[in-house]
Amino acid sequence: MLSLEQELKNNPYPGRGIVIGKSQDGTKAVTAYFIMGRSSNSRNRVFVTEGEGIRTEAFDPAKLEDPSLIIYAPVRVLDTKTIVTNGDQTDTIYDGLQAGMTFEQSLRSREFEPDGPNYTPRISGIMQVKDGTYHYAMSILKSHNGNPQACNRYTFTYENPLAGEGHFIHTYARNEEPLPSFEGEPKLVDIPNEIDAFTDLVWNSLNEDNKVSLFVRFIDIATGTYETRIMNKNQ
């Protein structure tokens, strides 16, 4: 198991990241989603609440350049399912589930982002908390070693996850040019019990210059009720 704190502190630009797991006492389904930015357009964002989920907004609308890949709903809730992604594929998954498709089938119509030469991966997660049970899945759609002619699709499913454990997936492996995509399975990381401690750990471990916003949610597995925290560098 890796230290989430060290994984974040040792990478100045993991890009966008999703963590999903279970609290140490086994009572909460846990997720975190963060965004980072190097350009002024990417940094000009905040998370705002929308329904049971969130969406990104321009902090200063006058400075918004290209909204196509930065304005979207990262988190949406459908019945007992919580969807977390780094792009508008949140809506693709939501619509697919409503149409009777699975998480994986819904993403078949999407691929990595068209932002060459980086070809940013689309990372997605889904959590289901129902009748006292909890499981989750994560996905990455990425170019083939930076070659946009091929799309590699990976889905990882975690049934009956263990207390105190989670998985972390992020868009960029390292801070290089062009930015290399995440490689391998989602990283096994530790998950604490307390939402504010977890929020502080993630937020304070992200690179100060590049971090933009953070969303954290703890869902009570027994009742389905939840607590949410949102951190925005732009206030």
Q: What does this protein look like?
A:
The protein has helices at 4-9, 40-43, 89-98, 103-106, 195-205, and strands at 17-22, 28-36, 45-50, 53-58, 75-78, 81-85, 122-130, 133-144, 147-159, 165-170, 187-190, 211-220, 226-232. The protein has one domain (4-225): Glutamine Phosphoribosylpyrophosphate, subunit 1, domain 1, CATH 3.60.20.20. The termini are far apart. It is mostly beta strands. The relative contact order is 0.24.
Distance between the termini: 35 Å
User: What is the highest CATH level, the class?
Assistant: Alpha Beta
Q: How many domain units?
A: 1
- Please state the structural category: mainly beta
Radius of gyration: 16 Å
CATH topology: Glutamine Phosphoribosylpyrophosphate, subunit 1, domain 1
Provide the low-confidence segments as ranges. Answer: none
Largest sheet, if any?
Answer: 6 strands, antiparallel
Secondary structure: helix percent: 10-25%
Name the CATH superfamily assignment.
Inosine monophosphate cyclohydrolase-like
Strand numbers in spatial order across the main sheet: 11-10-1-2-12-13
- Label the overall shape: globular
Task: Estimate what percentage of residues fall within beta strands.
Answer: 35-45%
Separate helix tally? 5
What is the second-level CATH architecture?
A: 4-Layer Sandwich
Note the run of SSEs as H and E. HEEHEEEEHHEEEEEHEE
The number of E-state strands comes to 13
- Average pLDDT figure: 97
Which properties best describe this structure?
235 residues, mainly beta, Glutamine Phosphoribosylpyrophosphate, subunit 1, domain 1, six-stranded antiparallel β-sheet, five-stranded antiparallel β-sheet, 5 helices, 13 strands, 41% strand, globular
